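Hi support team,

I submitted a single chain yesterday and got back a structure, but I'm not sure I'm reading the token output correctly. Could someone confirm the output below corresponds to the sequence I sent? I've pasted both exactly as they appear in my results page.

Thanks,
R.
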Amino acid sequence: MTEPAANQVTLPPVADLDALDAVREQLMTAIDAGPVTVSAENVERASTNALLLLASAAETAKRAGHPFTVTNVSEPLRNAANQLGLGARFDDFMEG
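Hi R., thanks for writing in. Yes, this is the structure output for that exact sequence:
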């Protein structure tokens, strides 16, 4: 049996506290529906809270048995994850 198509969530250019409520809702809906793909190509700034939200969403999807992938990872997002010491954890679900 094949997995259904992934649910797409796109991160905003500024992934900070002001944007996270909407992103959290989108992630929750996507995880409930199945596999999740998060596009991070537009991220210019990412807060610590945004990175922790992604890590939490990845773990929630894993526990639900759904794939979770962050694609087209921007350099600012990757740098922010590395600066917080989350680079290795994020390598588990980041592509590109």
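A quick pointer for reading it: The chain has a mean pLDDT of 92. Let us know if anything else looks off.

Best,
Support desk
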